[in-house]
Each structure stands twice: as C-alpha cells, then as structure tokens.
Design goal:
By secondary structure, the protein is α+β, with helices and mostly antiparallel strands. The chain contains 7 helices and 13 strands. Helices cover 33% and strands 28% of the residues.
Length: 274
C-alpha cells in the first residue's frame, strides 16, 4: 500500500444525491461512484477534490491522496433530509407546502447550519411537486377526464378504510359521495344533522363540496363529503336519497329528527318531498 493510502475498517454510509446517484459518505467526506473494479471493489472520487477511495466487501475503505478541504457532516444530513422529503411527497397525500414548512420549522429549532445548506423553501417545493407528479396521474381538467371507476388507492383512507360511498349520477351529473362505514353508522345514530356547502376549496371539475355533519352533545362531527356538479334541487334530492338508501342497505336505523341547513330553498324542498 502506498504512503498516501489509508486503510480503515470503519464502514462508510451511502446516500443518494439530488440527481439520484449513489454517494459514499466517509469521515465527513462525500464521494461519487466512479466504477466497479474487477475484484468487486468500488472506486469513488471526492465530490470536492481529486481524493479517491476504494470500498471493499468487508466494509473496509482505502482512501488515497490528501484532501484539500475540511470534512462536512452537514452535507450528508442535508441529502438525507431531502431524500426524506422526497419520500414523504410521494407516499403521503398532504400538501407539499405543509411538508416543507414542517421540516424547516424543525430545522430552525435544531441547527442554523442546516438551514444555510438547504435550498430555498420555494426551490424545495417546486422540486417535490415535480417528484409527486411523476408518481401520480395528472389532475383532470374536466369531469370527463376523471377516471371511471376510480383507482382503489383513491377510494380508501390513509388507514385503509373504504371511503368512496358512491360514484355516479346525481341530478344527471357525475358526483362522488365519501364516507366510511363508521361515519355512516355514527350519522344514522344521531337525531340532529347539519349540512352545508363550500365552493372555495372545491376541485375545479366539480361545483361544490357539500358536507353533512352529525350534531351531538355540542359537537359537530363531519360524516359525509359530497363532490357535486351543481346545487339544483334534483341534485340535493338524489344526494340524500343515496345516503338514506346506503344507511338502509347497511341495516341501520335512521334516527334523524332535525337538520340545520342554510337558506337555500332547493335543499329545504328536498325534505318536504323525501
């Protein structure tokens, strides 16, 4: 072994670069993979200088040439954090903004050095949005582009419970009604309901999100969420008809006595005809 070679039995760690390439982290230095040798060892080159390293199957590492810079453990931590962010963006369904901001909040508490070495919040958000788009179908721009039937992964909660109660026509337009078995059971057992629609948080291919809550002991619990294509009396009639039918199919009793709604006449008329 040459005088500039250092043999160490300490094993290195492997991380993935921002471009998806394998890197070796060893004693605070990072190396990118150059080639695999005939004897099965792997040859690495420092990402910041010309120093090289060879890793062997017994976890030993030989470092050649003197490095011209100081070690930096922060770089490895930053790469690991970015990989964790990427994993969350792909596996979780929460907003990208929240995922990134939670990470930055935790970093600010721990170390300012990490914040300095991380890309800007805007850059991270854009990068994670691209990663998420690679693994998910494009957002439909029209109701006709919405797949039918929906993929099973979009019909369940994060706990694996079936959430899609109904996918079909309400008032002649395609609509979705979402509720778990527990939600429907709880709703059927309560005497007082509350219904209301929102337009600002509704996906653009629908007209509104209408939610139905069960009111008990001073607490209003959301039980049903419906993505509706309009607000006509026909749509509301079909909506509640489906809900009542589903409750009956589950052999549950409807204990509803009162329902609080806004001043929309089309909803009020539904309960005079049902």
């Amino acid at each position: 072994m040459c005088s500039r070679c250092v043999l160490n039995k300490m094993s290195g760690e492997f991380v993935e670069s921002t471009h998806g390439k394998k890197q070796l982290c060893y004693l605070g230095y990072r190396y990118y993979f150059k080639r695999k040798n005939e004897n099965g060892s792997q040859y690495w080159v420092c990402v910041k200088c010309k120093a090289t390293a060879t890793s062997y199957s017994d976890s030993s590492i030989v470092v050649r040439d003197e490095r011209t810079h100081l070690p930096d453990e922060t770089a490895k931590i930053v790469l690991e954090m970015r990989q964790n962010l990427k994993r969350k963006a792909i596996e979780e369904s929460g907003p990208i903004d929240r995922i990134v901001e939670e990470v930055f909040h935790n970093i600010n508490i721990k170390s300012n050095d990490l914040v300095i070495n991380l890309p800007s919040i805007r850059t991270l958000k854009n990068s994670l949005q691209k990663q998420r788009r690679k693994t998910r179908p494009p957002i439909p721009q029209t109701i006709e582009q919405l797949p039918s039937p929906l993929s099973e992964s979009y019909c369940k909660t994060t706990q694996g419970e079936w959430f899609l109660l109904y996918d079909g026509l309400l008032g002649g337009t395609r609509s979705l009604i979402c509720a778990t078995y527990k939600d429907i059971t709880y709703l059927s057992q309560q005497e007082h309901w509350y219904g209301d629609g929102t337009f600002y948080t509704c996906p653009s291919i629908f007209y509104q999100v209408y939610s139905i809550h069960a009111y008990y002991d001073g607490i209003s619990a959301p039980c049903v969420f419906a993505l509706l294509g309009g607000k006509s009396e026909h749509i509301y009639y079909d909506l509640f008809a489906v809900i009542f039918r589903k409750i009956t199919e589950l052999q549950l009793f409807i204990k509803l006595r009162t329902i609080a709604i806004d001043f929309e006449l089309s909803i009020s008329n539904v309960f005079t005809t049902l």
